[in-house]
Amino acid sequence: MHLSSRVCRKFLVLVLGAVVISALAAGPALAKGPTRSSGNAVCFVTPNPVSNDVNGATYTVVGAGFQAGMQLSIFVGTGTILMAVADSTGSFASWDWAQTQPNGTTDVYVYRAGDRRMTVLAHCSFLVS
To answer: How many angstroms separate the first and last alpha carbons of the chain?
Structure first.
């Protein structure tokens, strides 16, 4: 038996073991599929509808059912990001100027701040006119 064939077999077993371990480790992560909402949290916007024609008009995104102390990122429309922290009851409120929003229906998505998977915790929408 040659030294090179023994080294080659050991290398092959090592590579095969690495492939098996990586497949086992990746299996649960791949099986999860797309991220989904927890289903407990809700949000809404007040006032609804809101006018973007009035100078100084604001809207407020309100939410409930979140974990107390959770830091939240609130994506409004296509470019506004609001930040909030859920209080001891799991509620939050965050406002912005209505003039920054275009006319039409605007979607609001609430995520846990820093969540790289972007799991939607709550979704609502409001009308801008």
So the answer is: 83
